[in-house]
## 1
Amino acid sequence: MKTINKILEIKSRTPFSLKLSCLFAICTMIFQHSISYANIIEPAFLKRELGVINIAVAGKVTDANGNSLPGVTVTIKGTNTSTATDLEGNFKFSNQVPENSVITLSLLGFKTKEVVVTNANFLTILLEEDLRQLSEVVVIGYGSQERKDLIGSISKINADEVKQIPVGSFDAQLQGKAAGLQINSNTGIPGEGIFIRVRGTTSINASNDPLYIVDGVFINNSSLQTVSTGGKATSPIADINPADIESVEVLKDASATAIYGARGANGVVIVTTKRGNYNSKAKLGFNATQGIAEAAKIWGQASGPLNAELHNESWINSGIDNPALNQTYANRPFRPVSEGGRGLPEEQQTYDRLGDIFQTARLQSYDLSLQGGSSGTKYYFGAGYTRQEAIMKPVYFNRASFKLNLDQKVNNNIQVGITNSISRTFRNQARAGDGPQGGMFQTALLVATYLPKFNADGTPAKWGPWDNLDVLLNNYDVKTKNIRYIGNVYLDADITPELKFRSSFGIDYNDYNESEYWNSLTLIGASPTNGLATAAVTNNSTWLNEQTLSYRKVFNGDHNFGLLVGNSLQGDLIKSTFAQGTNFPNDSFKKISSAATRIGSDSWTESKLVSFFSRADYNYRSKYYLQLSVRADGSSRFGADNRWGYFPSVGTAWRIKEENFLRDVNFISDLKLRGSFGITGNQNGINNFASRGLWIGGVGYPDNITGGDKPGIAPQQLANPTLRWEKTRQINGGVDLGLWNGRVALELNVYRKYTSDLLIQRPLASSTGFSSYYSNEGEISNTGFELNINTTNIEKGDFQWQTNFNIASNKNVIEKLATPINVYSRDWLRMEEGHPMYSFWLYKQLYVDPQTGDAVFEDVNKDGKITVEDRQLLGNAMPDFFGGISNSFTYKGWDASILFTFQYGNDVFNMNEFFDMAGGTRAERFASANSTKRWQNPGDITDVPRFTTVGNNYRLEQNSRLLEDGSFIRLKQLSIGYSIPKRLLTRFKIEDLRLSFTGSNVLLFTKYSGLDPESNVASSQNVQGLDFGTPPQPRTFQLGINLTL
Amino acid sequence: MKHLRYFILFVIASITFSCNNFLEVQPQESISDESTITNGSSAETAVRGMYRALASNSYYGSTFQSIGYLSGDNIQWTGSQAIAGQFVNHDVRADNGSVAAVWSAIYTTINRANNVIAKVSTLALEPTFTQEKKDQLVGEAYFVRALAYFDLVRLWGTVPIYLAPTLSINDNHGKAKSSKEEVYAQVLADLKAAETLLPQTTNRIRATRKTVWALRSRYHLYNKEWAAAESYADKVIADQSYNLIAPYSSFFANNAVATQESVFELSYSATNTSSHRGNWQPPQNGGTRQWAPNSEFLALINDPLIGGNRSAMVSSTSDGRWYGNMYYRSPATDPAYVIRIAEIRLIRAEARAQQGKYEDALKDLDAVRERAGLGASSADGKDEIFLAIEQERRLEFAFEPHRWFDLVRTDRAEAVLGLSDRNRYVLPIPIDELKVDPALEPNEGYL
């Protein structure tokens, strides 16, 4: 009745409302009801009922530092009566609390506390932060949960632990930090893309990367790079400053990811950036690090004389093998100059080029942050700058970023906020990958050591298909500037304490600006091109609008029920403009406007997604859990027949610890069984118009010789109106076990993912005039387990030692694939039914005949010839298992941590050796120091065949001899820090001052003969395990200072 | 009051518009295949697209041509890709990427021609789209299709024939290979159709009736129909628009295009470049020198009494490496020479010699020699004349796709190249094609 009166009161005061419909009135009622419920204040008095004394209780809740804690749930134990603390941490019960009853105070991230209420005094209650995992808050899709209530399989990574590893993108820092998250760095170039998989590879043509969500914005993570860096690509994730990140959650099983529907199949990485706290004083932080990076190892090269000797040997051997070549000792290339030769081998000089390209690189980074809040406003401001030189000249990566997160309470029920981050990255790039021209690494690595750097006349010498290294070093000009904005605005409204509404609008905008200029001294710009410049601007914008309505209520104290419904709209647009100029007047002109020949083009592509989603969860006394979710996604990418996809999931958990029979077993602090099943989808990475039948323009041809090109059109792609999503079914079983009050926390997950309807570019007979069309046909499975163990080994006085160990294994099988697909040049990799992805397709070298020195290959079909039919799938670039182990120690002001990461069972094809030890088939090439292992005399036992350009020894390019075990253990990070005692700092009004030393990639234990088993030649998602022309991950050492005022 | 405001916000935020309209996104760079060839001007664009396929890098732009000369005896492989070396060594494997690329490029060209033939023929006439124009466009498509099947049959011998456009994924596969004779019959049928439809004009970069005559002359030569070969050559040679221009380099040097030498060449622009030069030119000139003239050929071409002024087609770097210099332009707009008047002259020489007209044969041969700055041939007697013509063709077309086909067609591959395995006279059907189309049989001797 009182409530109705209030409504009337408001109505009479508000002309606005008079005009509103009946619907509005009802809603207002709901609002009002909630307000009146919370705000009614009545005088406290004692009331005696049936002999029980009811008293009024009020109090204030603070944390250990005396900061007031708002939002603490205060419940009178054994009743439904509860309230929450206000902004100042105050709570109050009217005369409804039976004397001597117990009130329970709980808040996420804090240990729950029970207090006996004796009389109506004012209580001051202190809540202790809970550092143990159980009450850790874990971000889930569209919400958060305490770890003890988790049903899904989610890894949470504390970003602070690894953010000093000097790489461009935060995802590259996560290696070994989360069970089941496989990360290979691919290259030592900062800011380049990495290989990341959550529970294996599910797709061939669609993306295999997880969905990245930063503060609710689904961000782009595919590179916008258009200039060639030899098959490599930059990482858009590097635009995010790791210093601004609060936490990273990796969602792995279907009950966690199905709420993301068509984008959940490869897992979800949720990034939460830092925000301020209400009622906290401004805290200014400053971090600076300075360091160096170096190559831990470089390739061994044969000296000039040895290189020349090898050349002669191959020349003569080839002449013996094929007399028609007319290659004999007499006309060997390295014979005395007097005989018309190039001088004897021993007269050759050795010219080192590798030393010219590697450098001890400098690393620096600076971060400034300010965070705090008043009763209604909280803020986080961050500014950062980092500059990382690569160990290879002249490459470096710069990032300047700026962040502002702001939240404002409008009143007790409404909160609005904004998240902004803007960054500018600058990259000085060079080709560290495949391709000779402009190939920085190849030029340094592959030119024979006896070849001088300068011609006799002093001009720079160019050899083979390569540039002159000095020319490249002095004239390389490939630069990329990138501006990235990621932000969103949101509104949260508590319609009732149980019912919350949220609306948000987010944007990810990326302006990627590239330029390259090759002057006439470089091969690319040499006469007759006379200078070549390109400029490309690529614009990617993604916008996202979401509404969610969530409801949570505990019924009768036992039945905890939650419901979420929501919708989202998303648009994604990529526009790109490209221009190229050649024939410059001279090398001083560098802009396309000065070029005599100019070409240009632009491109445009767009996709849209509409989604509706819902999740319901229920638990009975935190004992039995059930969660159902469903998402419907409609995508513009697919034909009308299959535009909508539906992705359901179900998850259950049984928290056995809460059962009576375990409740009193003290050494078991937690035991929970989990199970989930669900379906997720994948549509990322495929062409926006893949389902359509299309003709292209741009294939012009003249009508007559004077007219120049006139427009032309041609068929481009055949339609497949039934094209649809890739679908991944995933089943997951898990156990969470806590022992001795959480000192040992173990999480084990076993899963099987089965992906069907793979988007395959199905090869089509070329007689159709098309090479392939998109169709849903392949199937891939991933089966594996993940184990994560956290232990607190010692916790005594000031000393603490904690360990995390995680290990995961994933077995990938291509279950169905109509036609094998070959990957990369020379088809070194091949995807074939019944075999895992990233399998190598090679001729198996059995041995080198000790008598002849010739390689003997396995003749699989026993037809007496070595043909393509004898190629086999041998080895695999994926590890059998991988993981990490980290230990952290704190003692008084000291802290230390050490992280090892490992992979076991992955193979690497040593493509450097393929080019460097080519037996003479590649004239004027650098020879690897390993050439000394070649067969030379009858009786030699070796696996390196006799040098010759004839026969299969080196002409068979897919030789299993070059496949090596790439297992490794890496000392990924080592850090030691010292915090200056507070008593020395207070005088200077400094709150905290920490000095630190960090080393990364400090040690590498591996049998692999190359520099780094994680190297990979290309960024293409189907290429792994080909090591070529790539600088290794650098070994770095940094000193840092963290200052908090 | 303030609560109402949020309620309104809620209502606004909840507005969702029609999802299906929202999800309709039309491409802007490509167009739907239902709305392509609908009128005269779109028909013209489709014909240009067809020529672009003919000129594509996997076809006349480079790869097809390279198979023609790499498989002969003039070129050595000097690059990093072993697949080019397989042609030089006559050890071509079914997984050779160039073989697959050429197969696919030729059928792509055929599909574009089939689209023109099927769709342009049914278009209504307009004031600007006359019957004459329509005939010309369809005639060009017949010519291009004839050339494409001609190239297929001389590379692979037996290939499947498809004459309708591919409109869905079920079209144009699953058919067994036709015999060599059937493919040649199809070439002739298309040439005849083109001949009646095309106008008798001169256009050196597009097909006209005269281009058809030239190709027919070559067609009959390959089919040993000497009289027909001679008479079609006569028609072309009699035309005043085609002349041997001296010196030899005139038709390619100094950025020349569409000279009187050319009966048919393909045109390139800064936008549509040819990859030919990249394979020939040394790194100093921005190429990769995948292949280069071999020493035996260099000795011939640089001999003033044998090569004459044709030595302009080779050049050497400062460090003494020889390279082919017929394709050299930047941007790479070197034309692809499909039929030159020199070829028609030598076709007639051969056809005449085959018919015993040795005097006349020598006249044609000497015309080509004269242009190269050489004296009259001293060849005497049937055998010597044939050898002289063969030698002249070897040098004249060293960097054009003739030498290999000539040796196979005249059954001289064993004598000249030492290639006794006759199965190697044709290429293997690409292994990937055999896998996706079970109706295809591998060529004999491969697999």
## 2
Amino acid sequence: METRTHIPVAKDYLKDSVLLNESVDLPSDVEKVLRFVRREKVKYPVVFVGTGSSGLISGAGETLDQVKRYLGDRDIKAEVVETGSTGYCTMEPVMEVQMPGKTRVAFRQVTGDKVPFLLDGVFNNMIPDVQVLGQHRNPSLEVWKDVPFIDELPFFSIQLRNLLRNWGRISPLSIEEYIATGGYRSYLKTIRSYTHDEVCDIVERSGLQGRGGGGFLTGKKWKVAHTVIADQRYLLCNADESDPGGFANRAMIESDPHRLIEGVMIAAYAIGTSKAFIYIRNDYNTAISRLEEAIRQARDYGLLGHDVFGSGFNIEIAVRKGPGAFVCGEETAMISSIEGKRGMPRPKPPYPAVSGLFGKPTVVNNVETLSNVPAIFENGPDWFRSIGSESARGTKVLVLSGRIVNQGIIEVPLGTVVKDIIFGAGEGIPGKKGFKAIQIGGPSGGFLTGENIDTPYDFESLEAEGVYMGSGGMVVLDEGCCIIDTVRYFMDFIQKESCGKCIPCREGTRRMLEVYENITRRPVDENGHTTLERFKGVMQLESLAEVIRDTSLCGLGQKAPNPVISSLRYFRNDYEEHIFDRKCSAGVCKELRLFRIDVDKCTGCTVCAPKCPVSAIIGTRHHPFFIVEDKCTGCGICYDVCKFSAISVI
Amino acid sequence: MLVKIEVNNRIIKARKGDTIMSALQTAGIKIPAICSMKDFTPTGACRMCVVEVEGRRGLVPSCSQPVNEWMKIKTHSPRVVKSRKTIVELLLSNHPDDCLYCVRNGNCELQNLAEELNVRERRIMGKKNNYKLDHSSPSIVRDPAKCILCGRCVRVCEERMAVFAIDFLNRGNKTIIGTACNKDLNFSSCINCGQCIMVCPTGALFEKDALMELEDALHNPDKMVIVQYAPSVAVSLAEEFGVKPGREVSGLINAVLRKIGFDKIFDTSCAADAAALEMAAELHERSKRKEKMPLISGSCPAWVKFAEQWFPDLLPVMSTCKSPQQLLGTILKTGYAEKTDIDPARIFSVAIAPCTAKKFEARREEMTRKGLSDIDSVLTTRELAKLIRLYGIDMNQVGSEQADAPWGIPSSAGRLFGAAGGMSEAVIRSLPHIAGAKDPSRIKYQELRGSKGRKEADIKLGRSVYRFVAVSGLSSALTIIEEIREGKSNYDFIEIMACAGGCVNGGGQPIGTGDTAVKARMKALYGVDEKEAIRFSHKNPAVSNLYNEFPGGPGSEKCRVLFHTKYSERKVLL
């Protein structure tokens, strides 16, 4: 057994024949070598285990151990390779096997215990169909019979994977494999044959917009920073992803770190800087270690450092770990944080492109934006323009989570209709409950409902529906979810994560949260004060939301009321139900639940009464019990313990 | 270059590059703001200054947005006013409703805003943060419950004072302003200068009240209550009673203090005269012996703590002469007590200073003798005004009076101590006398006057030249300190005052006054200097009498024991 992640190709060979080869198509002999590097042609079986964070959470570590043990015990000559995530998180841990001469086949939900059974089958030319996910398409290899092609699965068929094309396929820890898939060639082409202005022009022409949510033209931003006269400029890559329901950037770095590094280096060249920072959350351990390893490899290849490949271009990339505050994703707060200060936003203007980090022109780009850059130079700006919709070019990486069959990360052209994403790639809602809404863009986003689910996913169309794209999170809610509770959760998140600098955000979000807390619980007493306060709060909700949106200092505060405004727009009934009827029909708001014991079904077994934490259940043995409504807190313990289904929610 | 902008449908001209707020100010439109401070970069924290700009989605903070040609601005549209009002209401919803008990009642920016915006209803209500008072510091009390987190104190502490004692802590609505590790203020690097109090819009920061202990002493027949007041108090007190800044009222103060019932009224400037002579002697002695220069003044207690904390290597070159307040305190409980045959324990010595750090200085261990403090209680200018109001004295009905002998008639040189650069001027005037030469003909040093942060003057004495520099504001002082450490500086005397402008801008002065008031106070001190008959410290009769008793004059052995102190390194939290 061999467990290595590097393919023994001489560094110099890759440098001379691949990186420095200026022809568009590489000569066939080089291609032949690269096929080995990409493991399309193998001599021994290769087992791939996806060990991105989503895989590791599902038990990929154990899977990897089991694979190694299996091969070691049986003394099978095979290679084990750790890859990133495929994006199909529901199917994690994913294990793929490449047998000599056959196409690569993927298995789903391969926990450690299933490894021997599956490998037994594959090594004996038998694919156990229970666990199989699909096979990769490769015309030069023999296909497995009765195994679907991966790109025909609904999850993948809707996708256009440009950014994610290496995901789960190559080892993120191997620069050789990245180079073998065409990596770093556009970077070298750029720094050797284009001027700074030309690079900015090409990116502007491609129509690439910032993927952090703002949608500003990336090439334009670079141009501004490049035109400002300064002795130093900085490029910052924002990898401080903190939205609840957003983990695309993390997976991007874990699965294909070199793509980001290449993008960072091209952007740094475009704005004419030699210093780039990648600001990443401290808790993204796997991502940080893979990123640092990738930077080390790039430096080893001379792609990073002083006078890259004799072009005269110098570039250094430093990884800066952020403490994990949500607000540090805001560019000026991030700049403060890198400067060593408390991460608090400051007013714009001056914009960072004019005066940013340490007072120098600074470009802040999102991970996804920068990862898009290498492909633009590989295929040209017109290729990029041809993807997506009229108003938004290119693809967008989305995160599907919540009540949806296929959870995971997908990449679709901008302008794809949301309904197709949810019911196509996502395959709809599991179980019997109906679709209720999609929450888009995390705490600063809004809701799409059944009415407007056929909105195209791009900046303009979503904004017209009052929804901001944010970082691409899509949380699907079914009828078992309470909108009021969801908004309450987001308000709680925002008021905890507010930096505390500006008053509307700090004090306003807290008051809004209190309004939600008040309407999701029964009033302490019915007479007078609390009831009045409750109604007063609700009446102010909309006006408070407007003031917070109008006056807050940074994007966090300005967009904080979005869930409120959006839910008020589409779910007024839910509000009224909570406020007037004091009822949560989804049964989520615990404190609004009331339970009743069915006299006919109750046997008087006394199981529930002693379990009630507030002694709200009274009665005598062998006779039906009943619940004192005034005492009941709606915790639901009695409901859970009743063996005769005698207790129901009213 | 001027550009035209449209404000509330009227076209006005504004300087290009100006912020909307300053353009509007010139046009006579007042925009409310809590977090903005003159000469500081805007932080845009309070959002009170928002205006409506055509073409912009949200409201725009006028403090940081520069004007553009033909910008269309609405400063008081319903949307803007509603937003401002809501912001104040949000602040009030988390503010203790105890204005009547608040130290800043009637002088509070939040109160004023609520009044201006016509807040008449508790529209927004909710849970309030519950914080404890921080009483730990001898000078400054913090009440985080009243803090509205405008961040002015943090910025003054960092940018002007370079102390970094306080900063924002925690997140969201749990954000507070506090010291490192949220310890009490006395553990922090706070130098007690009180500049934070001066900028605080509410009652979240105020000086530790000394009135209670003072009243006890005033009404105790066994105590002899002696009071001294600083020259910079005399030029600022009148402002507390509605008089335009720049009036010197030492005569009135004498009368008022007598009315209140102080037994003896002295002037700290007299001790400043003695301190000037001591420092001149120290300087002369050091240069004669070719010892390490420069001599750095140690009269400012805030600067002394700053140096003890961060620059212990400078302590050996610092002048050991006590500050005027402590010097007079020493004299009162030693020589004066002996002469008037009073038990020093019976003396309750009060100092009225423009400074909160003086409260801290009075409690230093070095400033005690046989368990008795040289100064028992220190009042700020603001507390003096409170005391006057408490005793129901109508300042308009009081006539000027003289202070008591012997420490009541200062020279004008001593009074100059109140303004930054004045100490240097006083030392310069007396230096020839100390060196045995005759008094100089030139006594006014314009280059050491004014509100600049760093002022220099070269003095020729015989064949040698003395280079004087006066620095005020610790951030300016840092530059000089760096120069000294790197050996680049060749100054002989460095006067350092923690507060920009010196004691006239101290942390105990009336709140809500600006630069112009500070300049006016300085001018008043210079005006006194013009009129005064005695303009040399050594010509002050009380001082010359004092030194007549001490063989050897200033700097002699006995002076060293009584009038000099020592400094030691101080370990504090960041």
## 3
Amino acid sequence: MSAKMIEVRWHGRGGQGAKTAALLFAEAVLATGKYIQAFPEYGPERMGAPVQSFNRISENPITIHSGVTNPNFVVILDPTLIESVAVTEGIGKEGKVIVNTSFPSQDIAKQLGIDASQVYVVNASQIAKETIGKDYPNTPLLGALVKVIGNLDINHVLEDTKAKLAVKFRHKPEVIEGNLSSIKRAYDEVKN
Amino acid sequence: MIKTVYPKGKIAAKTGNEVMAEAMRQIEPDVVAAYPITPATEIVQIFSQFVADGIVKSEYVAVESEHSAMSATIAASAAGARAMTGTSSQGLALMWEMLYIASGLRLPIVMAEVNRALSAPINIHGDQSDTMGARDSGWIQIYSENSQEAYDNMIQATKIAEKAKLPTLVTTDGFIISHCMEVVETYPDADVKAFVGEYKPERYLLDIKKPYTLGSIDLQDYYFEHRYQLAQAMKDSQNVILEVAKDFEKTFGRKYDMYEKYKLDDAELAIVVIGSTAGTAKVVVDALREKGVKAGLLKIRVYRPFPAEMIAKDLANVKAIAVMDRADSCSGTFAPVYSDVVAALYSAGFTVPKVVNYVYGLGGREINTEHITQVYDTLGKIASGKEKPFAGIEYINVRIK
């Protein structure tokens, strides 16, 4: 993998929005002027079953079309997946994991069996409940991922997401505000 | 910001399916007949939404099977309409007998096809078994490496089909491209419409001033001549495809050919491949070039008609070639693309390159840069004489024992 390419793997459960998160994230990153890919891993589609989706981000056109095996960032929508899915596979010593949890990163690191410096935590479910009104952790986790990646402009991401949601929820403007503030809050609250 | 190639182009994030449906929306054919659920893809489902929303004026015929989808498309085309459909996998298999009728009647139908495996066992993922099976059906076959090519190929296909009077299908690799969102440049509706132009069939069944018969019985007396003409039309369509590509480049700025040569001109080792794996292989070629290995790639875009003479010339000086097939013909010998490439070389009198055959990725099995690097490693050993070219097919990333 070229040094400049960033690869992301999302872990969620069917119905939690892991695929939507990857697609939204890709569109938002495109708004910052980078090349993107977003693709889900298709298996049996069942509510609650473990699912994965992927992103690639690069300054240059992306021609590679194989699966992501060594992600730089892993985002875990449901912390119970840590027990049953090899969520840290392929991340090496440098990869970073972002977990939707109320526990501190030291506890999660122990559970994952990796160094605490590689683990970031944010209570995305709580943020979603307070801002959107429902447990949709995927939207706030976009903000957390943008923060942890570091070189992406959160304002571009917010503007693009606002424009997308404005089309989708033109009859429910309150939904837009909730989603945007969930991204912003997770961006501010995600911590090592 | 990512710059557009066409000054009036627009950069967007779209999946292969979305972008093929987008091309269909812009072309706005008179008739689309399709079966918009599995085994078809989202393409016709998205298009049917355009129809329901009144965005396009196309007549949409929701049929009860893929066989009927092709039958209705044939009828519409024969009547004089610009007609399209879309399918995938088992759907294409069910269209089978009608594919031959579309080409035999010389109807310029365009089909958006997503390459997916054939049952059994049941599988929904990407491989090229479906269209490879239809390679002798008299349809022009254009394959796409990515979403941009799928979009551009759909626009070109409309013109190609109508000029060559041959049905034309455009494919993407199932899931790998069809469901992958990536950066695509689209062109304004008016510019796409201007490029494809108005469809003016020379003859059509609803032209009551010039009545004619289509699809009549044709026995020992004329059948052979008509099939000969079909084969000739396929051969001649190469010029049409290249002319349309030239027009397309002049209009929108993107260059297309029968195939793409990637660092092939001075290559000693080369892979011949179709579809999305070409993109992955380009990454490997770049890495090998940095190490001083003269690796190259030939990506076939148009597989039917097969550009045999051109390909033979471009591969004549390569020492070792691996033809990678994403379909197996179960022939007991070789897979389809290998047979065509070797026949092309041999008939042109080029017997220097050592050519081996790999089959990969059936049913969506992973093919990554490591697998492709191993192929080039083997080619290196064959080129230097350390290893003899293997006979038969080597299967990549499969558990054999």
